[in-house]
Amino acid sequence: MSHPTDRPAVWFVTGTSRGLGLALVKNLLVRGDQVAATTRSTGRLLSALEGVDTANLLALEVSLTDEAQVTRAINATTELFGHIDVVVNNAGYGYLGAVEETSSTDVATMFDVQIGGTWNVVRAVLPQMRAARSGHIINVSSILGVLSFPGWGLYCAAKFAVEGLSESLAAEVADFGIRVSIVEPGYFNTDFLTGDSLALAADVSDAYPGIREMIKAHQAMPGSQPGDPGKAATALVTLAQSENGPLRQQFGSDSSGLAETKADSLKAEILAGRELAHSTDYVR
């Protein structure tokens, strides 16, 4: 059993001072669970939690790309709470720009956070979860880890990588009683599309006017997204408590609909290319 039923659960959550991570921390503290919350600014996190009982909170200022800092954070959590039941790798940011406009520095930074940071947390927590033969790792991807749109190339590439990492991890740790889940949110009413969480390609050209228009539309979107972050936090708890949930779980009606359409189109493409695919085998 990966989620305790006889005591408060211990959660380790990254990216907690804004958005879905903040909503989750609030939900967990109100529930009475014990929470280690990483952020780049504990002051911002504690300010955002004003009015919430933080007696069960361990706020940790951590750079997830620094493996030593991540290991110290995992150790501090274990020393205080005794163990870790659920890890939620939620930290990340958006990025908009054409593939041609995306610099090598932008690529490295995105993958350092989305993949390097996630990998650092997974490596640090797995030994204790394997020893306990219990635990649940939830990696927050995106519907853009399932399908791609113009202008989202770098973000999609990183989220596709999160999906691949998570799928391999799930198979590797299943025999230890550890569950892995991939969460694929759609548009939620957070600050993800604001300047605090959204980076833009710096060296742009006039070759991609459609992408410029898309960026303007997204910058005007905050406040109109269909997803409720409070309900997403509740859904994360439900997912963690489930013993037999799916590997992939969409959050939001938009994400669910897009994933279904992608699954249908992918199957159609595979069937259309089956004859050519089979033609490349040796004839024996």
From TrEMBL:
Keywords: Oxidoreductase. CDD domains: 17beta-HSD-like_SDR_c. The keyword Metal-binding does not apply. InterPro entries: NAD(P)-bd_dom_sf, Sc_DH/Rdtase_CS, SDR_fam, SDR_oxidoreductase. Pfam families: adh_short. The keyword Transmembrane helix does not apply. Gene3D superfamilies: NAD(P)-binding Rossmann-like Domain. SUPFAM superfamilies: NAD(P)-binding Rossmann-fold domains. Belongs to the short-chain dehydrogenases/reductases (SDR) family. PANTHER family: SHORT CHAIN DEHYDROGENASE, SHORT-CHAIN DEHYDROGENASE_REDUCTASE FAMILY PROTEIN. This is SDR family NAD(P)-dependent oxidoreductase. The lineage of its organism: Bacteria, Bacillati, Actinomycetota, Actinomycetes, Streptosporangiales.
